[in-house]
Amino acid sequence: EYESLNLSNKKIGPKEALVLGRNKKIKTLNLSHNNIGPEGAIALAGNTSLTSLDLSFCQIGYDGAIALSKN
Fold it and tell me: Is the distance from CB of 11 to CB of 32 less than 8 angstroms?
């Protein structure tokens, strides 16, 4: 079990983001330089256990940013 994961530039997409979003044990998650997209960002926004999330260069778009801002 990991509290901190660095998955930068690992070809993570929306489906993988959905799985990561369900993991309540991760506190710090770096997904920069992946193809998360809005769908993945919305899935991650539901994870209130995350205290640090890096989605730089993940093309999360407006909808993803809005979802994340509400968490």
Answer: no
